[in-house]
Amino acid sequence: MNENSLMIDDKNMMVMKLLHYFITEKSYTPIILQGAENEIWLENLNEDYKIVRIVSSYIHNEEQYKFDVFKTRRILKKIKTKTLSFRLNTLSIFLDLSNTVELNPSKNLTAIRIVEDNDFKKNKIIQDTFPDLPKKLKFTEKGMQLFVKITNDINAHNQEDQKKAEDVFQPKLPIITYILLAMNFIFYFFPKLFGLDSWFLNTFCTYGPLIRYGQYYRLLTGAFLHGNLFHLIFNMYALYIIGSQIESFMGKWRYLVIYLFSAITASLLSITFSGNGASIGASGAIFGLMGALLYFGYHYRVYLGNVIRSQIIPLILLNLILGFMMTGIDNAAHIGGLIGGALISVAVGVKYKSTKFEQINGWIVTCIFLAFLVYMGFVYTG
Q1: Average pLDDT for residues 211-226, to the nearest whole number?
Q2: 231, 223, 229: which is closest to 286 by C-alpha?
Q3: Are the C-beta atoms of residues 266 and 284 closer than 8 Å to each other?
Q4: CATH number for the domain harbouring residue 249
Q5: How many Cβ atoms sit within 10 Å of the Cβ of residue 6?
Q6: Same-domain pairing of 135 and 185
Q7: pTM (2 decimals)?
Q8: Are residues 196 and 80 located together in one domain of the fold?
Q9: What are the phi and psi torsion angles at 254 (to 5°)?
Q10: Are strands 278-279 and 206-207 parallel, antiparallel or unpaired?
Q11: Is 236:180 a contact under the CB 8 Å cutoff?
Q12: Active-site positions?
């Protein structure tokens, strides 16, 4: 008996072909679920259908189908929580669904019945969203040769994804973070050594009236000044912990752009609400790094989903709440930095994940946000 004589039933072969298409052609990622038998879940948030289900179990009546819909919604609810998603359009592809079952449209859930390859050509949903699918299901190989080819292609694609993930998450020397730390320490200790504390603060702090007068450098230099040693140590510890991670994940030039832009947006929102008050500190830029971490974690939620939900979001909320409850904290700067950091992260993109379309939209929204802050800081309150 040779390998070509080994038979694989049509339904399982269809599952393999669909996996090959959605994983290697559309970059969907399998979702590991407990209790979901005879069905495969795939995810790609860049597609119209964020979730694709391939269901091979036999469903022979309406009651079974309704239970499947109920179970699907329950699982989707868990995925939304884990992936920080609000809406997950889902396509269920049923490979063994009785003709007596009526597929009624349901909110965010679309279902199609497929028996053979030609059914994809006749299906309007497939033609609208995955028009190349019927063509991609055609292979010259047959039987076990086809099974081996599909398996090898999927494994090769998964290995490539694994290499990309290793490249992103491999620890790297945080040179830019070290430079930023050094600059903050120099800006704090240098004036003290020469008795220039007051002059340094008055010359470089974030101060709305003088910024509007033309001293724009204060929008950035104020983020490198600190009022006392505790203020400096607290911010530098946060910068080292969060900054070294973002620099490693996003890359050095992206990280530097995010930090500096967040510092500027933090200062712009600060002068909008501070009146004639001065502001100093790196916390606005650090909040920008947390915004960047949220965006990065959203793309790599398979690795960081639990950390984002259980640690980063609570940390951001706690600091914002403390900022509203305590005096002497420039919460406007924190909010400005947080939003600025998240938006500029969309613009500069996440390695291996962001599309050009997404980055262009990110730059557009970022420029609109910056223009809004400039108007609020210079015109509305000027």
Answers
A1: 95
A2: 223
A3: yes
A4: 1.20.1540.10
A5: 11
A6: no
A7: 0.83
A8: no
A9: -60, -45
A10: antiparallel
A11: no
A12: 283, 334
